[in-house]
């Protein structure tokens, strides 16, 4: 699981950007980068992912160059993603007002582990998040982060 996740360390996913007819996804990503103050110089490719459901907008996969500059640019995007709260219309000019989220590109297993940890530890742990492909939890702001590697870790944390 860790090896597969490491192959995605230069990627991020943008969720909530409305699909527009004849859209140029690279221009949408550039506009989003400009809005949050992040550079797009080290992006190697952008692709709209296939739709999984009619109710959800297909996400955008952003791949950064596979070098230290690409990784640093991706980390810059991740650190700036909360600086401005944006909705889809700010980027596309369309009518949708979905909130835009910039997330790590996670494997299905890590994404499922994160979801399970968030749902099962709700009310027990104040913080559950993912960073560098690792699911972590903290009881409160002063607590020590705990790395969650599997569902059995979640069971142990539930006590």
From TrEMBL:
It comes from the Eukaryota. Pfam families: Baculo_FP_2nd (PF25298). Residues 107-158 form the FP protein C-terminal domain. This is FP protein C-terminal domain-containing protein. It comes from Plutella xylostella (Diamondback moth).
